[in-house]
Every structure is written in C-alpha cells, then in structure tokens.
Input
Amino acid sequence: MADVKFSKVTKKFNENLILNGVDAEIRDHEFVVIVGPSGCGKTTLLRMLAGLEEITDGEIHIDNVLVNNMHPSKRQIAMVFQDYALYPHMTVEENMSFALRLRKAPKAEIKERVTEAANILQLTTLLKRMPKQLSGGQRQRVAIGRAIVRKPKVFLFDEPLSNLDAKLREEMRVEIAKLYQRLNATIIYVTHDQVEAMTLAGRIMVMNHGIIQQVGTPIEVYRKPVNLFVAGFIGSPTMNFIRGKLKVEGDKLYLKNDDISLYIPSFLLSKTAEHDGREVVVGVRPDDVLVGGAAREKCSEKLDGMLEVSELLGHRENLYIKVGDTRVLATVEAFFNQSPGSKVAVCFNYENMHVFDKATTQRING
Amino acid sequence: MNKEAAAYRRKKFLKYLLIHAAIISFVVICVYPLLRILSVSIRPGDKLFSTDLALLPKGADFAAYVRLLKETLFLRWLWNSLLITVTTSFIGVSLASTAAYAFSRFKFGGKKGGLILLLSTQMIPAGMLILPLFLMIMKLGLMNTYLGIIIAYSVSSLPFSIWILKGYYDTIPRSLEEAALVDGTSQLGAFYRVILPLSTPALSIAFLFNFTTAWNEYLVARVVLFSSKQYTWTLGLFELQGQYITQWGMFAAGSMLVTIPVLAVFLYSSKWLISGLTLGSVKG
Output
C-alpha cells in the first residue's frame, strides 16, 4: 500500500480549466472519497492519477515516486470503472486473471489469487460465465475482483455504484466497506452521491469548479462546512439558508431580513459589535429546525411560520414551512399531525447553526 | 368482437401472403439466371441459346467441365485468383484495421479532412483510375506480376474498409482499452487483445468486401496482367470468347465453378458476422 500526493495539479482541456492547482495528500491505508457535482473535476483527477489523462501542470506522487509520465500499468494502481469495463470476450475468470497473465505470473499463483478474490466477492460459481450472462451487481463485483487480484498499491473507484439500482447500491456499499476492512488498502473513491461519501469515507474531499473546497472526516464536513458550497452539497435534505444582515440591538446580535428577526447567540458569533451591518447567510440543517411543541418547549425566541406541505417518509416527516417569504424545511419525527395552512412555531438549534459571509461565502462562526 | 378478431386474422394472413409473394419473386429473379447458366454448362454442344426452356436439358453431361479443366489453364487461373484475392483481403484488412483505429481513437491534424478524402476517393469511377494505376504499376516495374495487382486491389478497397471499421470501433467503449492499459497492456496491446477480438463482425465485413471486389475484378487485371499463365479467372474465361466462336459451355462451366470459393468464404464468415459481441462489457 502507499500514500498519494497531488501537488498543484492543473488540467486544461483546450482553454477550459478543469483542475486548478489541486493540492492534496492521501495517506497509506486511507479511504478517501472525492465528492462533488458533475463537471467538478473529480473524475479527471482520478484519471490523471491512473495515467489515463495527461497532466497539464503539477506533480502526482504515488509512494513518493513521481508518476506524471509513467504508463498506467507501471503505477501499481487498479481501477474500477463506472461502466465496469469488463472484457466481453473473456470469462469472469479470464477477466480477473488478465493483468496477471500479462505479467506472466506463474499459473498456480494466478489460480490462487483469482480463487481468493472470487471467495471474497462470492463469485466462485460464476467464474466460467461471460459478462453478458451476469447481472449488474455481479458485473460490478467482477470489476472489483479484477482490481483485488492485482494487489495494487492504490485502488481507484470511479463512481462504481452509479449504474446500480437503489437497493443494489446499498448492498454494494456495504460490500465495499467490508472489503476495505478486510484489505486495509489505500482507496480513492469518486462519487457524486454524498450518502456514499458519508458512509464509506475515512476522509471526504469536497470539490467544485476544479478546486478542493474542504477535506475532512465525514462528521467534520457535515458539522463544520467551511463554505456555502460544502454546506449545501453535504447533507440530505439540503441545509436551509436564510439570508440577511446582522444588526446589534442592545448587546444582542440579530439576523434581520424582511421576514425574519433571528437572535444569534454570542457563542456563535462573539465580538458582537464587529459584525454589525455585515451581510450573511445563516445555515440550519432540517434536523436542527424545531417545530410546534418542540419549538415552544426548547426555545425562548420563536418565529411564526405556516405549514405549506408535509411529506411522510416513514419514521420521519419533512415539513415545508413558510416564514414570511422564506421557506424553511424541517425534518421531524413522524407524525406531525398538522394540516397544510396551519400556523406553527419555528426555532433553530443554535448549537448546530452555521454562519457564512455572503460576499466570500466562507464560514465565519467557529 | 369475434368478427373483429376474424377480420384482424384475415388482414394479418393477407399481409403475410403478400410479403412472402414479394420475397419469393425476388428469390426467383436472383436464382433463375444462375440456373440458366447451370443449364448452359451441362447442355451438350456449345449452345447458349435454346428453344428448350427446361432447366435440365436433354442429354445433359459434364463434358464442358471436363474440357474446361483439361484443355485450358482454368485451374491455374483459379489458383492465381485465390492467391491474389486472399492476399489482398489480408493486407487490406490489416491496413484498414490499424488505420481505422487511429481515426477512431487519436486526435491529430487533418483527421476529419483525411476521412472525407478517403470517402471522396470512393466517388471516382473505377475506370478513371485505370490510367494512373497503369502508370504507377509500370513505373514500379510490377507489370504482369501478382504483387502489382495485389497492391492495386489492396489500396482501392482501403477507404471503404477504413470507414466500416472506424464506425465499428467508435461503438466500442473506450473504458475497455483504459482497463486494459491499467491492467498492463500497451496501446497497441489493448488494440490487439481487446479491440480486435471484439471487432470480428466488422473485420468479416471488410474481409468479405475485399474478397468479393478482388475476386470479381476484371478491368485492372486486364491492364496489369498480360500473360495467360498470370491471368485471374475473369481474364481466363474471356479467353474462351473468340471473334467467331465462343465456347459457351465451358464459359458457363467456369462461371459455375468460380462461385464455389466465394460461397465457401461467405458461409464460413457468416459465423463471425454475429452482432452484440460487446454485450455485457459495460453498464446496461
């Protein structure tokens, strides 16, 4: 296994800047998930690491070896592709042993490694089948098996579950997590699905517009997003954003807009006077919005809202509430039992509130 | 309801009948001339025309076949044709498969222009190329040689083969080659180990096209080859056509015999012409 280092990595397609000086370090045995919206450059970064895409500028090191101009096969990486990329004219066994056969590994070793990988991935009975005779999930397992057999220094996964249906995706997610525990390998995993990122990653690397926005553990990224983009991208349902101006009244700080006057406690933003007049965006996750009885019990300062729509999800319920012209989404325990149009009290869990500067979009509370 | 169902069945049957009638008439149009040639080849004497409409003439024999094989260089012509055609087809497909791969996968200046240029050569009538081909082959000192005719045939089929193969390669996902590159092949290795085995339907079509074009070619052969021993069967058969007399029996017998290799190649390659070879490689 090995660590991976990106130093000022830049990629341009003609005049389009895809990656803008990416600096990142992935430690040995680490499971890093690169997450971001379509077109953010995450797959390009992975393909550059694999040697499938040329590097415009910067350096990539695998195990302290500069690999910028190294052929993909010499980088000691294995890649699982989004569309599986199984060789259709070879059986499962031939697919899995292809790299070893190319390396002219001894037959006994090839057999041993293929059998071992097939056992891990429950492919033993499918070894003689052709890829077209397999289901989507089985094909994905073969693609992973092909990577395992090679015992690479780094595993690269390029959105490996995006072509599977929701149930299978969940199953395979667990399989990959189990596989990581078993192999304890360095894994770099690209996805646009933040649930995959949150559940699988040791560290998450959030990307947008070719720039790394934040790197941290899933809980760090979720609890302390460094900017508005990360706050909006991580977490489902999406965080509520309330825009307004900070205003000092007496010794208290308030967020004010046409609809809302929201008290901002001093533990959230100290040095109250400094913030007077500053344009900000306050972020609150739907789980941290208290509604009705809960709001009345736990908050001293409440807002008046009107329930627009409620969506029952099973054990939870999404409530879309209008506070003036601002819409707030709250996720509460089922069943809320209020009909649309009814008035409800709303307040926020201050401890998990996020304040971002409107101009710079950066987080300003601790 | 029953009436409607019966009307629907009648309509379906009528449609079925019409389609089959059309297909059968086309088959007859295609097969009848062949049967007439067969009939001429086994008709006693060198008669092309006969008042007898029977496909199996009275006193039918294989004398024309025996005479063709014994009295002419027919087997030699057939061998020449086979040698030239098979070599042409292999060279043509080999050149086209690699050229098409470059057109399909790499970015280079003049790629689009090159493809259009290749296509435009197909719009020039073959007759117009006779003179430049003659001059080139003469200057190369390859007149009356197999090599001369093989070069002429191989290059004339290239544009079509390149287009066919490029179109097919374009449908093969790039991720397959990328997986092969990561697994340890070179670019050429990925082509040889992954792309080529998956392209057998298109390679078969290109091979068949090269084969039939070269097998049936007359004009270029007429210009390049001039000794009877070097003739292909197309030239050889025309030897049987004299100013005052044409040996129609032998001509027809020869025509029947030359269909056998083409038929064999078509039947053999049909098993490669299966579609859906890439099924199961990627998502879906």
